[in-house]
């Protein structure tokens, strides 16, 4: 069954507001990847986190991997309309990646 | 450089029909994957191939078979399609190991009536 849960499922924000999506696993993950999928498109790799407590930034995006390597978050500062899409985490457990259910972000201009 | 190419992009089948979804990558990647994406379920791994000549079951393999024809190509076959297999299917490839980004194709939208 699903090993990686992601919340919230949907998020509507005004342009300029911040956004955060959370990913939680029932088991310890070897690493975690984040992907973005635009409407009608395919998932595109954003970043990978490997170390416990790791924090990485990409411009307005901040990614964190929990100390216990069971949770992760993606935070977007000052959202823009180009941020619209569904954000997925994918946790590696054993030799398989388990994708979260995704958070669909809508940005209202 | 096409990346990961999936064919067809759309398909409608009747229950019980068979079909093969094709996937090819030109990035010399070793690992290839087949996922299905359903609303509210994220992407679920059907089968994967860590290297040419090997295939392994993922999270939801029932009703599917795969063939890693060569390093470039990884096909997914539905022997007897069922309405529960209506989904968007994505193929992905990865250079090697599990510390690399996965590169996805554009997907195949499959409807089974």
Task: Please tell me about this protein's structure.
The complex is a heterodimer of chains A (109) and B (113). Chain A has 109 residues and is mostly beta strands. Chain A has strands spanning 4-7, 10-14, 19-25, 31-37, 44-49, 55-58, 61-65, 71-76, 85-93, 96-99, 103-108. In chain A, the strands form two sheets. In chain A, strands 2, 4, 5, 9, 10 and 11 form a six-stranded mixed beta sheet that branches. In chain A, strands 1-3-8-7-6 form a five-stranded antiparallel beta sheet, with no helix packed on it. In chain A, a hairpin with a 6-residue loop joins strand 4 and strand 5 (44-49). Chain A is globular, with a radius of gyration of 13 Å. The termini of chain A are far apart. The model of chain A has no long low-confidence stretch (mean pLDDT 94). With 113 residues, chain B is an all-beta fold. Chain B is built from no helices and eleven strands. In chain B, strands 2, 4, 5, 6, 9, 10 and 11 form a seven-stranded mixed beta sheet that branches. Chain B has a four-stranded antiparallel beta sheet with strand order 1-3-8-7, with no helix packed on it.
